[in-house]
Amino acid sequence: MIPQDFIQTLLDRTDIVEVIDRQVPLKKAGANYQACCPFHNEKSPSFSVSPTKQFYHCFGCGAHGTAITFLMQYGGMGFVDAVTDLAGRVGLQVPEDERGTRPENDLNTRLTALLEAAGQHYRNALKRHPPAIDYLKQRGVTGTTALRFELGYSDAEWQGLAGALPDYASTEAEQAGLVINGEQGKRYDRFRDRIMFPIRNDRGRLIGFGGRLLGDGKPKYLNSPETPLFHKGRELYGLFENRRSIQQADSVVVVEGYMDVVMLTQAGAENAVATLGTAVTADQVYSLLRRVDQILFAFDGDNAGRKAAWRALENCLPALQDGKQIGFVFLPEGEDPDSFVRTQGLEAWKDLQKRPQALSEFLFGSLSRDLDLNTPEGQVRLTTLAIPYLDQIRSAPLLARSLRQRLSELAGVAAPPPFRSPAPQRAQPVPRPLTKLLLRGPEFVLLQGLLHDPQRASRIPAGFQARQAAGQAVLALLDHLHLQPQTTNSRDLIEEFRAGDHGAIVRAAVEEILRWDDQYDTEAEFAGALASLDAQASRLDVSRLSGKKPSELSAAERAALQAALLSKKIAPR
Q1: Residues 6+ apart with CB under 8 A from 458
Q2: What is the pLDDT of residues 42-73, one digit of tens each?
Q3: DSSP assignment, residue 519?
């Protein structure tokens, strides 16, 4: 476990505005920065980043957190990877915990170094090999594009990397996917006589290669094998290189080949990515839907292309989300994106994307292609075929309902309700929406003041009693601050309560805090809320104690009643 004090130090040294602006261009808006939210579809910006609080919040979908949270939510990183990434940016070393080092991290670092050394060797080899340069020129690749994608060439020699790697005979050279250990211990390069396409993850780390054979032979394309760094089903070629354009377009085009991405990018269509020799996976779709609201799959118009499109559709279903759009673009017979954009031009490519086939159209059209929907048998058959696919749509309830309605219209048969697994024995309570009244009371103002400055905790009376959700959150915050006195800034306190039982009311308070301008007197509001709550408590004491006979009051209760009546806040009736 990474120590909490290191996390706080890391966040103190990190500028969240800089971190987010690398991925989502921000604009200054008063004391904060704004952008259209990268986590949901919107036309006007509701995503706010506070440089003073070092915190982000979306007023539309509720997404919020610190720089670490952003890398996890937007970049798909795990917690440790996000911390390590930020630590590297600010020059900190992630400390080792009591369990010692993580061997896989050390291994990954060494494998990355080997891949980078190989990548440099391939780039240098390209400059020395005229046939490889001629091949790229014939394909229309410019020098600028080759440099942007760091294209290279692997020699035809069996051990071309022997002089490039620190230890060609090491096991790690095999683990990196660069070297193969053949029969009788003979080692040789995996990639030989190939145009080399470096594959980077979404953080820019080199994780593998794709190689296109320059001469005759098979396989024409060869990818790195599965390694500790490289997982074909998770990564996408071009995602790192085109990340800015993809975010700005709020749309990504998924193609099948490296050259498709390279040539589309060169032509000006800079929102393309490619799968790595496999069918589109659900992990890849999840990754893209975190970044954009529209995914278009561009496939050849032949039978093989439609089969690939169908596999993509199948793997999209579990990842679908309401408000997100999935479409399919089929190119003319004999064309791929590379050849199409070179012969037809960028505008023709853009026009093609304006007429995508919607996922629903492709789904029902493919299933009903050989069916006669004018017969009961054909209608029932379509329903039988479609239901298993619709049952996979679990994360887009509105779309699932619409598709079932469409199925009923096509088949003339009412589609059965979606399959639901048995409910758990202990059902979770359904959260209730926060009312405006709840967000205006003194307990809510108290919560805001405490979140704004945790050091105000010492001013809240020990006998404070919560009567609303906001007050209960205040008590929870006070308990946390008592146990974790090192929590002295609002960022850490907000992050601690971003989820859980009090998450909704804390999010509502944060939303209001981020709307405050320079004229808002936080201290006056906090003091007023304390006075109001004190007055309410006194009134309750008077009401409760006045209902008792004098003989029933203890000495302490008589003193409390007298103090309340004498108080300037309570006028005797």
Answers
A1: none
A2: 778 889 998 888 889 888 877 888 999 898 87
A3: T
DSSP, res 357: E
- In angstroms, what CA-CA distances link 533 with 444, 529, 536? 11, 6, 5
Q: What is the SS3 assignment for 248-265?
A: HHCEEEEECCHHHHHHHH
User: Do residues 275 and 282 touch, judged by C-beta distance below 8 A?
Assistant: no
pLDDT, the chain, mean: 84
Q: 73-117 pLDDT, tens per residue?
A: 787 677 888 888 888 888 888 886 544 445 555 788 899 999 999
Alpha-carbon gap, residue 246 to 252, rounded angstroms: 6
Q: What is the pTM of this model?
A: 0.61
- The gap between the terminal CA atoms of the chain, to the nearest Å, is 60
Listed residue (87, 77, 106) closest to 8, CA to CA: 87
Give the separation between CA 230 and CA 201, rounded to whole angstroms: 9
In angstroms, rounded to a whole number, what is the distance separating the alpha carbons of residues 118 and 70?
32
Measure the CA–CA gap between 284 and 233, rounded to whole angstroms: 7
| CA angle, residues 272, 277, 283, in degrees to nearest 5 | 70
C-beta atoms surrounding 7 within 10 Å: 19
**Does residue 525 sit in helix, strand or coil?**
helix
Answer whether 410's CB lies under 8 Å from 382's CB. yes
In angstroms, the CA 447 to CA 505 distance is: 9
At residue 24, the pLDDT reads: 85
Q: Please, which residues have CB within 8 angstroms of residue 329's CB and are 6 or more apart in sequence?
A: 253, 296, 297, 298, 299, 352, 353, 355, 356, 357
Q: Give the neighbor-by-neighbor strand order of the sheet with 357-358.
A: 272-274, 251-255, 294-299, 325-330, 357-358
